[in-house]
Design goal:
The structure is a single chain. The longest helix has 19 residues. The protein has a domain of 166 residues: Rossmann fold. It is globular and about 55 Å long. Helix 5 links the parallel strand 2 and strand 3. Strands 3-2-1-4-5-7-6 form a 7-stranded mixed sheet, with helices on both faces. Helix 7 packs antiparallel against helix 11 and helix 9 packs across helix 11. By secondary structure, it is an alpha/beta fold. The protein binds benzoic acid (BEZ). The site of benzoic acid (BEZ) has 9 residues, from loops.
């Protein structure tokens, strides 16, 4: 499959994603010598912070372009679809920032995370929660429907659960949830909303012909201007984060 991600565009337009991920690293509290798996590590900006804390970290991501950027930082990274993680009983912790909302089969991801952890290991992460980018999604969805007659395109690409839903899924996979919170976080973005679309909504726009994408980005941006752009031209995205810390069962798992 073609890689919709560009590490260069991400660095220019979305550096705030890893900058705002520092709070999740504080929840994780990486310790020297711990073996940690970073699920959906992207260009490795936060993976690098875990390594700087003294942890022994493996990052995994499905995008070749992002993996190349992460490897250029000297990190240990594997290319993989995070719905199909194949690690068993080897990590003290699993970490994830701003990635789980791209994985639309969450139970497959959770099963892989549970297998990867040692008994009693922790899973700490943050991603988009219920209500995330609601205005942005509504505008994009309406404009895509007009141009390509496709309904709810964003919902086929993004997974934004409530705290209750994600807690249930964690528990059904054998995790004990220690804390979980939905956090509204209006987020100033650098530059124009069209650049946000180009960088962060590229996989949503894959369902429409390339020739229509510029018009869709511009029309959706025009719809959003009165609600997300102030009189000085500064855009703020209507982000809502879901942050959690869970612990895998302390009993040894039997992988059959
Ligand atoms: C997010 O980090 O919440 C996000 C990123 C890209 C698209 C939608 C949401």
């Amino acid at each position: 499959m073609k890689d919709a991600w560009s590490a260069r565009r991400y660095d220019e337009n979305a550096r705030f994603v890893s900058d705002l991920g520092r709070g999740v690293v504080e929840w994780l509290k990486p310790k020297p010598g711990e073996r940690i798996l970073d699920v959906g590590c992207g260009d490795g900006a936060l993976t690098e912070q875990l390594v700087e804390a003294g942890a022994d970290v493996l990052g995994v991501d499905a995008s070749i372009d992002m993996v190349d950027a992460a490897r250029a930082r000297g990190l240990d990274i594997e290319v993989a679809d995070c719905h199909e993680l194949e690690y068993f009983n080897e990590f003290d912790a699993v970490f994830s920032n701003a990635a789980l909302h791209w994985m639309t089969r969450p139970d497959a991801v959770l099963a892989g995370v549970a297998n990867a952890l040692k008994p009693g290991g922790r899973f700490v992460g943050e991603f988009g929660g219920h209500g995330n980018v609601a205005a942005i999604r509504t505008a994009l969805s309406a404009v895509i429907k007009q141009h390509a007659n496709i309904s709810n395109a964003p919902d086929t690409v993004w997974f934004f659960p409530s705290a209750k839903e994600y807690q249930s899924r964690l528990e059904a996979t054998g995790f004990t949830v220690e804390r979980i919170a939905l956090i509204p976080r209006p987020t100033p973005i650098p530059g124009e909303m069209t650049a946000w679309f180009e960088t962060l909504a590229a996989p949503v726009l894959e369902c429409v012909p390339t020739a229509k994408r510029t018009a869709i980005r511009e029309e959706a941006s025009a719809l959003l201007r009165s609600v997300l752009c102030d009189s000085e031209g500064n855009w703020t995205a209507d982000y809502v984060r879901l942050r959690f810390e869970a612990r895998s069962s302390s009993k040894a798992r039997c992988f059959v």
